[in-house]
Amino acid sequence: MDNASGFRQRRSDVGSALALHQSVHDAQSLASIDRPPGKDENLPVSKIYYPLSFPVLALLMPASILGVLARLGLQALVTYDGQSVFPLAYVQGTGCFIMGLGLGLKEPLGNLYGPLYTAITTGFCGSLTTFSGWQLDVFDSWINAGQYDRNGLRDLIDGITKTVFTLVLSLASVSFGAHLAKLISPKFPALSPPGRVFRYGITIVSVLTYAATFPAYFRLPADFRHKATAALLFSFPGTLTRYLLSIHLNPLVQTIPLGTFVANALGTALLGTFHVLQSTPTPVSQNACAILQGLADGYCGCMTTVSTFAAEVGTLKEWKAWFYAAFSWTTGQLLLLVILGPSFWAGHVKEQPTCSFA
């Protein structure tokens, strides 16, 4: 294998690198994670979809909606009195495992229908996992937002636990998913690609699915808005923002995946801002509270991702992986400190949201 073909394999097959515990030397090699399968997967021209082609963007719509619903549902399921593990851990672990499977099955998925790969990884897994939610969860531990009966040392331990446990769980889950995909990939059934009518049909249904979130928000009972329907409105815009940042920025810098970093940092800053607006002494209206919750769960939750972040950290070589992980985490905490800290400690807002919902 010559140098050019070796670089091409390292650049495209992130799933194999994760499964075999291999590394890549620069972040530019990870730019293929969010892109649909292409020439690097040895696909014929007829099966290649460009990143910004309409079928790819359309299929991100229902994938984003399903990702948000899965995140909110899973969090509700594992939130109970006496829980042993914080709820977001289940979300991050599940999303990262599916992400590893998707990366490992990129070529078979490309042979079937390329946009399906992007829908599973970028759309569903990216919307299921949330970097901004992780960062806020850690920050809430530092300041003891739950007002638990414990001292500052235990606040510190709680924040460190959520940091380390989430990172280790996410890296292990994405690697396990990629390893499992490596085992089943040779036995993956060679399904016939869908015909033109089916492809056009699924694109139309995808667009109509997202369009249905608007009447769902306005026509369903008002108490559904902060629970789900507001988040569904902002799910696809959040995913699309992250996807565009990834496509345009990830190939630019060798040290870190710049697009993923910017999406995670920007989403964390916005989540902190929305949290401040939800915690003012004079609560905003119920409709505004629902919109803010939708922006937090939908836009910020889908704009930021742990699954792609974990795949990148797990594949980058040595010090670059540690630098990227530490730099991303530190940036998120500093942004929340700058946005939330002065408001909390000056007494202008409360640690707990004051928003009331219908």
The structural domain count equals 1
Termini, distance in Å? 63 Å
What's the gyration radius in Å? 20 Å
Low-confidence stretches: 1-11
Family: Belongs to the fluoride channel Fluc/FEX (TC 1.A.43) family.
Membrane topology: Multi-pass membrane protein
Main location: membrane
Catalytic activity: fluoride(in) = fluoride(out)
Descriptive terms for the model:
14 helices; mainly alpha; 358 residues; disordered N terminus
Secondary-structure topology with pairs:
Elements (H helix, E strand, L loop, with lengths): L2 H10 L1 H6 L34 H24 L9 H18 L1 H23 L2 H13 L8 H33 L11 H16 L1 H7 L5 H25 L8 H20 L8 H18 L3 H9 L2 H28 L13
Helix pairs in contact: 3-4, 3-5, 3-8, 3-10, 3-12, 4-5, 4-7, 4-13, 5-10, 5-12, 6-7, 6-11, 6-14, 7-13, 9-10, 10-11, 10-12, 11-12, 11-14, 13-14
Describe the structure.
- The structure is a single chain.
- With 358 residues, the protein is mainly alpha-helical.
- The chain has one domain (26-345).
- It is 70% helix and 0% strand.
- It is built from 14 helices and no strands.
Summarize this, please?
The protein has 358 residues and is mainly α.
